[in-house]
Amino acid sequence: xxxxxxxxxxxxxxxxxxxxADGTGIVTDGMNYKVNPFDEIAIEEALRxxxxxxxxxxxxxxxxxxxxxxxxxxxxxxxxxxxxxxxCEQAVDSSVVAQILAKVYETEKPDFVIxxxxxxxxxxxxxxxxxxGALGVPQACFASKVELAGDAxxxxxxxxxxxxxxxxxxxxxxxxxxxxxxNEPRYASLPGIMKAKKKKxxxxxxxxxxxxxxxRVKFVKMTEPPTRKxxxxxxxxxxxxxxxxxxxxxx
Amino acid sequence: xxxxxxxxxxxxxVSFVLYEFLKADAELKKLPPFSGMSKNDFDMVVNEAAxxxxxxxxxxxxVCDRSPVQFDxxxxxxxxxxxxxxxxxxxxGWLGLTGPSDFGGQDLPGVIGLATHEFFMGACCAFTMxxxxxxxxxxxxxHYGTGEMKKTYLEKMYSGQWQGTMCLTEAGAGSxxxxxxxxxxxxxxxxxxxxxxxxxxxGEHDMxxxxxxxxxxxxxxxxxxxxxxxLFLVPKYLVKGDGSVGAYNDVQCVGIEHKMGIKGSATCxxxxxxxxxxxxxxIGEEHRGIQxxxxxxxxxxxxxGIQGTGIxxxxxxxxxxxxxxxxxxxxxxxxxxxxxxxVPIAKHPDVRRMxxxxxxxxxxxxxxxxxxxxxADMAQFHPDEDERNKAMGMLELMTPxxxxxxxxxxxxxxxxxxxxxxxxxxxxxxxxxQYMRDIKIASIYEGTNGIQAMDLxxxxxxxxxxxxxxxxxxxxxxxxxxxxxxxxxxxxxxNLTETKDKLAGVTMHFGGLGMSGDQxxxxxxxxxxxxxxGDVVIGWLLLRMAVVAQEKLDRLCADNCCTDDDTxxxxxxxxxxxxxxxxxxxxxxxxxxxxxxxxxxxxxAMMSGDRSGLDVAP
Lengths: 251, 618
Hints:
Number of domains of chain A: 1
Order of helices and strands of chain A: EEEHEHEHEHEEEEHEH
Strand order of the largest sheet of chain B: 4-5-12-7-6
CATH superfamily of chain A: HUPs
Shape of chain A: globular
Oligomer: heterodimer
CATH topology of the largest domain in chain B: Butyryl-CoA Dehydrogenase, subunit A, domain 2
Mean pLDDT of chain A: 94
Number of strands of chain B: 14
CATH class of the largest domain in chain B: Mainly Beta
Low-confidence stretches of chain B: none
Structural class of chain A: alpha/beta
Strand order of the largest sheet of chain A: 9-8-7-10-6-1-4-5-11
CATH class of chain A: Alpha Beta
Strand content of chain B: 5-15%
Radius of gyration of chain A: 22 Å
Strand content of chain A: 25-35%
Number of domains of chain B: 3
């Protein structure tokens, strides 16, 4: 069995992000980067499936410039078997990501793909769905539980949907995405980190994949969210009720 | 799981010290065992250690303090949260970070190990001692044990299954370890050990399946004093031929101490051979035990230094955050205006002074410890003999300063952190009061800071005919000459030059007294002498870092078209990197102008010739 997982390099969500004055992006001086936390959950799930037996190979793929190799290496340190680094310096959108992953899928022919439901930097939540569409395979997104069938040819996936949980069955090959509650990812162990040094990462220039890398989404401008306006103090309860009725129109 | 803690690590400064200042990645590349490792590898290790320290280790710190280890009928029980965290730590392989890969270690450089240790020590000192003791004992076995010993014990130790300890102190032999009374009597292929050891950290607990005690004892008929002491490996349970744990070896824990701090660390009294059946196995040759211990001492003392700085750094970051959040009072200049807006206490000059004091000591000590650990790596592995010797000299000279200065100033930092918090700092609701209690022991054990001061003044300064001291002063002179005309830091460099000359003067004066037979007067001043020496070293390091930081700050200003003071100030407020570098420069200036002048008082005291406190005890 082979499982393909993703590891996207994202800005550290715990850091304060500042938008550049000219709105062309964010200030990256001193920025820390890490593996997209949802991808970490996906990697963990693949590793748990592997550890349950059946001798699965876990392949971690990342897209980006030279530095993106660090996040692939992090996946290897957690326990994935090898990496694929699609070298791509320019900015990509979800549809380009889906096309790139589709090409990788065609060469790797995994049993299934599992990736984070979205990346915490741009929060698009589209790449997996588009990938499933491009490949013409079933998708099971926002998984909070994944149970493989005995023959490992399908999975029963519990999905977090509006208003509750939905359980569906998908036959492989398929694309799954990990939601927050699927598992708690492990830390890389020290021996894991040292072993990851010796694991192979294949570098593939994006140009060699024959994918149209022009983004479909046009980046217009980035701005800080508007700061909240200060509240007003009211004299008494009747004024408050009146304001809620007439100005806020909530009662 | 214990509740989350507020513990933070300063990864930015750690990264600055390692790579921008020390260029550790390039330096380590020159050392054959580490030539295949890169900054990316080190980063990954340091980042994972930070994660583990923050998420797994730090939450047990308060638990250890409120539910200390318990003793009952020879057994020591640790809190469940500590056990769970220790298991995760051992399984993550952190115990064998710098250990040899042949026995389950990871062969990483000492300086990287030290960086991870800073995080773990800050997260929970009591916790980190268990693994630290095992790693130290393992190193001793690795260097001086027989092949058979290494095969039998090391892998189990580096995995954390077996606990290592150092058994030196006895009730009548602490600082004067040569007075110890524990005996060893030859009996076939082993010795029979008999005696009692006190203050044995991790001497007994419920997180491992066996103990490997390294015991100093005197073989029957051996000479008196240090030269008659031998080192023995004494397992609590003998090890069977297949490597499994066998029969009880007559080692029992008869009590634990109830301490001011590090209450999660089991400080045990161990009794060896009460039934006359305790087997010990000689490590190395007879009567050379102290020598073996001493060879491990540089590392152990730097290790205690990092306890000081790790805890101090944690306390400082707590104080810094609190001072920026806690609203109290108005801007001092508006104190008469009752409607003036209330401000965070970090706005108040007195609080700022306390915060900069903490920052300067923490960052100066961090640089000293990392630099010294890098020298230790170079002294061991550099292919060039001259480089090895020079690094060894600096290591020897700086070790007592690492131990004593970093723990003394670390204590001061925790005290200032409490002061920054005000009344809340004195309450257990916030973590800083525990930091102060936990850090105090670091100035006492592993050779009291008084012993360190005597080591510096009585041994290290005059070692190799004073060569190590001359090498250091020479490096300092080169730096001062090179940067005396620095546009921003020049005056501070001149200040350092003058202070260094005073240090040289005092050293010469003491040397002269020593030659004329007066040992007592210099030794009487050994502790302030070390503080003096330490201030010069820290001033030098802070300024060296400031030179690097100023260059980077200038570049950032140029990149962002900031040419006047206003735009520069705005950049430092908006851009975290500019703020960081500006902070490095300010810390150096603050230290040189506000903290280092205390040495003038020391100089005056040392040169006074007054012996009123020396001749008799009060």
